[in-house]
Structure formats: structure tokens, C-alpha cells
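Recall that a protein's primary structure is simply its ordered list of amino acids. Everything else, from secondary elements to tertiary packing, is in principle encoded there. The following example makes that idea concrete.
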Amino acid sequence: MPLFKRWEYGGGLWGIWKVSESADELEAMLDDRALFEPELERMKAPKRRLEVLGVRVLLKNLAGKECRVMHAPSGMPFLEGDGRKITISHTEGYVAAGIHDSLVPGIDIEQVRDRVKKVAARFVRADELPEKECMTGSEYLLQLLLHWSAKEVLYKVLEQEGVDFLEHLRICPFPLQHTGEFLGESFYPAASGTFRIRYFIYPDFVCTFCCKEL
């Protein structure tokens, strides 16, 4: 079973699963098909079915039991009949999740690819990458991916509609390392504040995560 990484942070439990199994192999790791089959039937693309199954297997590993994953009107996931809070993300070949007894967790995982450069103007503020002219191409790409990923995390933990990545969210400049942390700021009126975001970088993906106190 390719549990790629499992760790504790902020009182929560986090994990990344490398999805290298077939759908049948993932299903064999789950005991109660009724908990995921309705959602699986709505997913016609094989890739999406693998993501759904991979997330269920990972959540079983983190939660210690199988639960039905439901979604609030906002789209945020939660476990049916379980008061713990969860967060889910996926990218090419991997799924990620976090679970916390009391705080709102947020996790995001992004494949390393150049496509993010084409949309950088939509989510990167002028005051977020002041040293970009001095960065190598690889450093700039990783910074963009971490900025996008971190803003996805902030969007998840804020749990607010109408949050704009440019207007309401800012990532404070930070030196790039293989693993570390930086600060993210929210200027959204109903959910302003500063958040400590952890990250790590692997050859084929970056991952960011944090918790929000209630």
C-alpha cells in the first residue's frame, strides 16, 4: 500500500497516498462499498474514480475507520456521523488529506508543471514576489506553485464564499527551501487574519497545509 507520507502537525493527522493501484485494488482495501459507491457511480472518467477511491483509502488510514464523505453547500467535505474535520486534495498520481478533532484543516497538493506560469497574473500580487527577477526559472516556478497551493489552503480554511485570490489573500515573501513555512494573510472582511502555512517540495509535486483556530 503506497502511503507516501503520514505526519502530525498542529494537533491534526495528515497524509499523502501515491495512487499506483488499479480501481479494483483500491476497492479491495475498503470494507463497505455502500459508503462510496453512490459517489463513484457519478464519476465516469477512470482518473476521477481512482481519485475518489484513493481519497477513501487514505481517509480510512487517517481516521481509523471508514466513513461516508459528504459535502456541505459550500462544497467543503465532512465525514458523516463523525465530528472531526477533514480536508482533501488531489493532483496527478497523488491524493492528500488531513483530519483534526477541533480545528479546520486545509491541505493542497499541486503537480510541478509550467502551466501555472500562464495564469500567474490572476493570483500573484505585486508585493508577493519582490525578488522574482533574481530567481532561476525553477525557483520561480516553485514559488508560483507554492503561492497558488497556499491560497487554495487559505480558501479552504476560511470557509467563505467570494474570496478573491488577488484582492483578499497575500503570501508573505519567503526564502525557498525543500521544506519550511511562511505566513499567509487574509484581508477578507469576515475572516481576516494571519496564518502559518507549512510546505514541502518533492520532484513531482508541492504540498501546503495549515489549521485555522475556531
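The mean pLDDT is 93. The chain has four helices and eleven strands.
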